[in-house]
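Deviations from the work plan: none for this task. Representative record:
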Amino acid sequence: MKKDLVIIGGGPAGMSAAIAAYEAGVRDMLILERDGALGGILQQCIHNGFGLHKFGEELTGPEYAWRYEKQVKELGIPYKLCTMVLSVSEDKVITATNPQDGVFEIEAKAIILAMGCRERPKGALNIAGERPAGIYSAGMAQKLVNMMGYMPGKDVVILGSGDIGLIMARRMTLEGAKVHAVCELMPYSGGLARNIEQCLNDFGIPLKLSHTVVKIHGKERLSGVTIAKVDERRRPIEGTEEYIPCDTLLLSVGLIPENELSKTAGVSLDRMTNGAVVDQDRETEIPGIFSCGNVLHVHDLVDYVSEEAEIAGLGAAAYIAGEEKKEISVFLRTDGKIRYTVPQRITAEKDVRVYFRVADVYRDVTVKVSCDGGTVLSKKKQKLAPGEMECVTVPASALEDGRELYFEVEGA
Amino acid sequence: MFDVAIIGGGVVGGMIARTLSAYNLHICILEKERDVAMGATKANSAIVHAGFDAKEGSLKARLNVRGSEMMEQVTRELGVKYRRNGSLVIGFNGEDKKHLEELLVRGNENGVKGLRLLDRDEVQALEPNISESVTCALHAPTGAIVCPYELCIAAIGNAMDNGAALYRDFAVSSIKRTENGYEISRYNGETVFARYIVNAAGVFADEIARMAGDFSFSIHPRRGEYVLLDKECGGTVSHTIFRTPSKMGKGILVSPTVDNNLLLGPTSVDMEDKEEKETTAEGLALVMREASENLKIPVPFGKSITSFCGLRAVGNTGDFIINVHDGRFVNVAGIESPGLSASPAIAEYVLGLLTKHGLCLEKKADYNPIREPKHAFREASIEEKNAIIEKDPTYGRIICRCEQVTEGEILDAIRSNPTALDIDGVKRRTRSGMGRCQGGFCGPYVMELLAREYGTSMECVTKMGGGSVMVVGKTKGDLS
């Protein structure tokens, strides 16, 4: 099979990229989705708060996804469900499998990678103790509760204050469980401020900052966890241990872009984002392979995912149409306080919105972009936090071949 | 009345069962857990040792070298992955070098083939990521790796396909001598009769022996903790890297696994409690520290996907304890390292002991030593896969993304000997949930398949039997 464009992933990023590419004239295209329905992880996000930026409305996850699914169907963009991509080669041959077609290959002119991300598992934390049932990633618990209608447990401790963990603290409470505490290793939460307010504070659930789980108890089913305070170097402080009886431990300790397929294709990855290195069109270093959404870098809001995916869709359409990029090369560097930028490089002389995340909480600071000692732009910020994505627009006038743009936080 | 009852469904009991199942005998395996391979078999270093460690003339030495020779064929017949990757014992100084020279002599004495001492440059050429402080190494080209629980499950599955019976949850509580054998009971009173008993009960072998009136040995558990890293890290080293053994034990090894993960461990702490399999903060820290010393590149601990702990059965004699008590009760005890490596040879040896004590062997006409490889689908060509999917579309549906395990493979694990009863059982048989997301995505689907296949509710699906339920009720239900 041959296709102009194959989009891997039918979540918010994949659908939005597909629609943008269609509207830019691409017709010979196909979305490959591993699940039994379009929508990706939004299907299980039944809480509201989606679409405030994009639609000016507070939608639930499935409602937000439906706006795109409806368009995909109306435009007649073809998609295959229950289809798992097994590998992508450097010359853009995709190998996939599903029960109807078996294992098949597609030669694509362009590919958009939109596989999303996965949660970091408990194993990555090496918590001491037993290995009983009752320990789940927050996302798996969300699937059990929201999609399948089952309660993983009734006395809950949550480790990590990522957004899914916060959302699940509220969700489990609403379903009748008791959430005893949310422990966060860092001195600040990795989640959105509004989620801390609406999911923890409104329900009286304690957020224990600078705390972690040091031991897991229970042979068959979890019977409790020992938590402890940690010092500045995140090591447990002796004497601060506290035992909390519980039957469920939910983990919300970070999201990892799922780039296994990107790696099979030989796409180079950014150590900070764990996603591809891309230009302003979200094109990776392999011409014709694009990346967007949470597989590129973890977003806090789906609205930004959609926005980014449209860029990738348009980029892919231009690539398929054979449009040449203006040959410039501008690299974006950061000072460490800014952990990363997306894109990491710019290859066209136009205004480019650059997204970034910071490494710590900073108050009353200036975000500065400079080049060869000259300031390109500076923006005052009352507060920057790792949980919230930020963005600035770099003007076309600052872009010149061979330049390096330096992103920094001043006054921290 | 069984001819032989094997107490313990670990890799040793499993290999013995398979060997016996080639003959016209009624045999059974009595396993105290809900699944096989649940003791030391589940959590060890997954190494087929070359055989230079054990003292010349010991059972350990003899059976290790013989087992290592047999392993390639056994794994081929059982469809189990096996890789002869060779091992290196590394030394950091003159004292280590002297020790390695002794090991070389001992190994040659034991009949290990191809042993050679390497200098610094040769080590670096063979393993570019080895620490630059390494000055010498003993190279054993016959060292290999295998997945121990895969081997055990396959051996018991093959024995069952050839007629052996498996009793799960059969914790032996008493053994009575009868006129022509033994009456073996479990706590609920259920009883099995057998003419011979093979005691392969791992850390509990001394307790089982005492039930039969044999007080001649004791077993204590020795804890070993491990850290397992992502498949991306399997290429960090190609050989199994041991440190020069010292009074403190063999130290922390670094090895690829047959599934291309990187395995680090074990610690070595003598214990009293035979059930305590907790990992500890200190143990995991030691594994990380020593593993780091072995390599020149930083060990990618950020890619660790799980840590676990196993209890090795250490006997009080320093050697394997394989003997016959009372003419009909065969102890196979104290099978610590190199037990996995020796297991096929132990089975052969036990068969000899049984015949010597009157068990008549007559070859089974329809004995089939072959078990279809369970990982075959993953490794098949596109055409082969499509031929399978056409017949059975469930092989086209991927359930576990990380390890690319299909619904068809999971159903096969639930349906074929020894059947998987729970989430962990499916995991050990298919690798579903064993990858980098550790079951976060596939867990709910595996639960659905188990509930469907066993015709139970989701609330009855467990991680590993007993009270290890995955969900406690329906939403909006009564949680009190």
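The CA atoms of residues 203 and 313 of chain B lie 5 Å apart.
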